[in-house]
Amino acid sequence: MRIKVPTASPQPSPKEREAEVTVAHAARCNPFILSFGEGRGEAVRLLFLLLLLLLASCKSGKMVLQTETGARLTGEEQMEAVIGNTPVFDSFSSRLRMTIPLKKGEYTLNGTLKMQRDQLIQISLLLPIIRTEAARIEISPEYILVIDRMNKRYASVPVGELREVFHTEVDFPMLQSLFSNTIFLPGKYNLTRKDYSSFSAKLEKDDEVQLSRKSREFNYSFLTSMQTNRLIGSSIETHSSQYGLQWKYANFVAVGETTFPSEMTILVGKKKDPSRTTLELSRLSVDKQTLSPTPIPTRYEEIGLSDILKMLEKL
Q1: Is 3 domain-assigned?
Q2: Is residue 1 part of a domain?
Q3: Which range scores top for mean pLDDT: 234-238, 269-273, 278-282, 289-293?
Q4: Burial (CB count <10 Å: 0-12, 13-18, 19+), residue 179
Q5: Assigned domain for 5 exists
Q6: How many domains would you assign to the chain?
Q7: Range of the domain at 130
Q8: What is the pTM of this model?
Q9: Which of 115, 235, 252, 266 has its CA 20 to 30 A from that of 51?
Q10: CATH code at position 58
C-alpha cells in the first residue's frame, strides 16, 4: 500500500518558477552546481544514503550499576535523571552541516534540520552559494518521503515496507529519539517508570553509566554521564556485535529553556571499520514554528524503493 501525500496545484507558484530559473542560471555559471542538474543528484542521494545507513544498521530484572569490585548500586535514579534532562520542545529548527562518506571520499552540504514532535522530521539540503533547496527528506510515523528537486522526482515509501525490506525494528519514535538526544525503546514515544527496570546498567568509567536492553533482534545501549546527567551516546547492535550503529552527542548548548547537542557523530556498519557521518547544528531554536507535510508538485515523477537502491549502488 502506498501512502498518499499532499499534492500541490498543477501550476507552479511564482516562487517555484523563480527558484527553477535561479538554479538553471547558477548551473550554467558554476560547474559544481551543474553536477546536480545533470543527474548526479548528490544531495538527494546523500539523504537516501543517510536514511538507508540507519535502516541497515538497525537491521532483565532490577537495574543495577555493576562496578569492577562487584558492588551493586541502583541505577534507576541515573536513568530517571537523564530522561529528566532530555531536550524539551514541540518544534525544533536549526541550520545543518552534514558530512557523509562516499566511495571517493567525504561529501559535505549545508541545509536545515526541523522537527515537529511525534509528527514530522524534515532534513533539507541546499545548493551552495544560492542556498536553493536541492533535496528534502521527510519522515513521519506513516511514511518516508524524499524529494529530488533538481531532477523533479520523489519517492514516498511506507515505513512498514522499509521495515520488511531491511528486517529492522526501525520506526518513527526511534528515529526521532536519535535526532533529539533521547533514550528510547522501539515503538514507544515515551518511557515510563515501568520501563526503567527492564534495563541493565553498568559503570563504564568514574562518571559514565551504560544503560542497556536486548530485544529479539538487537542490543540497545545508552551511554550517560553521571556528571551532567545527559545522554552522550546511543548504540544499536546485532546480537553478534559485528554490525551496528553508534550515535554520539557533543557540545551541548542552551536553546530557549532546554539544552541540545550541536554536534552528532554517526558510526554505521562493521564495528572494526564503520562509516562516519557528522551533523553540525547551528542557529538552534525551539517552539518558533509549526511544520506541515510537504506538498508534492504534480509534475514531479514518482520513483520506487527499487529505483532508490539501484541509485545508491553507484555511490
Answers
A1: no
A2: no
A3: 278-282
A4: middle
A5: no
A6: 1
A7: 15-312
A8: 0.77
A9: 252
A10: 2.50.20.10
